[in-house]
Amino acid sequence: MSMDLRERFKQVRADSKRFCEPLEVEDYCLQAMANTSPPKWHLAHTSWFFETFVLKTFARDYQPFHPAFEVLFNSYYNGIGAQHPRPERGLLSRPVLSEVLAYRQHVDQQVEQMLDANDHPQYARIAELVELGTHHEQQHQELFFTDIKYSLARNPLYPAYSGEPAPGGGASRPLTWLEHPGGTVDVGHRGEGFCFDNELPAHPVLLQAFALADRLVTCGEYLAFIDDAGYQRPELWLSDGWQQVCEQDWRAPLYWLGEGRDWQEYTLYGLLPLDLERPVAHVNAYEADAYARWAEARLPSEFEWEAVASGHELQGQFADSGDWRPAVATAKEDTQLHGGLWEWTSSAYSPYPGYQAAEGAVGEYNGKFMANQLVLRGGSCVSSRSQLRNSYRNFFYPPDRWQFSGIRLAQWR
């Protein structure tokens, strides 16, 4: 087990640096809004996680790399102590990038030594925390993509993160429905392997008969909603959503620019003509819900999504592919249930019956956020395949648009 975990640790840590390779040094401190974090901060915080929960707790005679880093790179762990203000992470021009990379190397060497020795009396707990840390880092790799895209998009030059995009995938196939008879189904993580505490415990839920769309909503379909005055019709919107529409002057998804048939979309490859066949991305829960009402459908619950997804292989478009735009669904078997885009559900992010957060400060990871957020399922084109499961529960606030989130429709039967 130790060798497998050691190799996973090394691979995940290397991936974080690899994803940063297209950046210029000026990009590493970009933070265009409080909800995003600079690339340099992601690199440091993921190292802070291993230093704080593994090395400081279990390593013999461990000397911290820099005593101030405990505050600078603490995200929200109040059980650990104070944190540098989140909106000011982009002001941290120091430590410089080379020092952050040296911090990563220091942490890597220490953790690998602990995994190699495997003679620590609490080695099993160390291994659990290292595995948790690798999944935590993959979440930050995903945030790296979402955050750098938002920050680069604020630049009027619309610079590209990466070079040439992958070619288009042709025409999207017609939408059909995946029927489900309802009944009692089991949800939550079952069996062996890693999961987060918010996926536990597995439990039965009762579902009415329903159907899920067999692919995501496309840009062309969403454009029809816009052309039908979708953003000007209050009857389509939840009250909070309509207030946001009016206050923020929403007229289209986050990265769409233009109007009529001349829309363009900002992507990680720069500004490109809007591809009507690709799934519509960067819509928030209010936009997804309004579109579903307009389409005479609704958003699925997270349990409906899991009930259908459990019958499909976990395969799709992930960050490992190197194609960071959601791809067109052309083949019948490509349901887009996994990868591509996170899918909004109508389910509040709340604890499962019998839920217990992990003990100690690490228990702040999920449980304390179980209020005022909605669950998303499935993963995206900037998620790593190895971090996902059918029981995986992502969560964001309904107004959030900068994530790689899309729309899957549902209907009662």
Unreliable runs: none
Secondary-structure element series? HHHHHEEEEHHEEEHHEEEEE
How many strand segments? 12
Name the helicity range: 25-40%
Short précis:
This protein has 413 residues and is α+β, with helices and mostly antiparallel strands. It has helices at 2-20, 39-58, 69-72, 97-117, 123-153, 219-227, 239-248, 285-294, 302-309; strands at 177-180, 183-187, 203-207, 210-213, 256-257, 264-267, 270-273, 342-348, 374-377, 394-396, 405-406, 410-412. Helices cover 32% and strands 11% of the residues.
Describe the SSE topology.
Layout: H1 2-20, H2 39-58, H3 69-72, H4 97-117, H5 123-153, E1 177-180, E2 183-187, E3 203-207, E4 210-213, H6 219-227, H7 239-248, E5 256-257, E6 264-267, E7 270-273, H8 285-294, H9 302-309, E8 342-348, E9 374-377, E10 394-396, E11 405-406, E12 410-412
Helix pairs in contact: 1-4, 1-5, 2-4, 2-5
Key descriptive features of the protein:
413 residues, three-stranded antiparallel beta sheet, globular, four-stranded mixed beta sheet
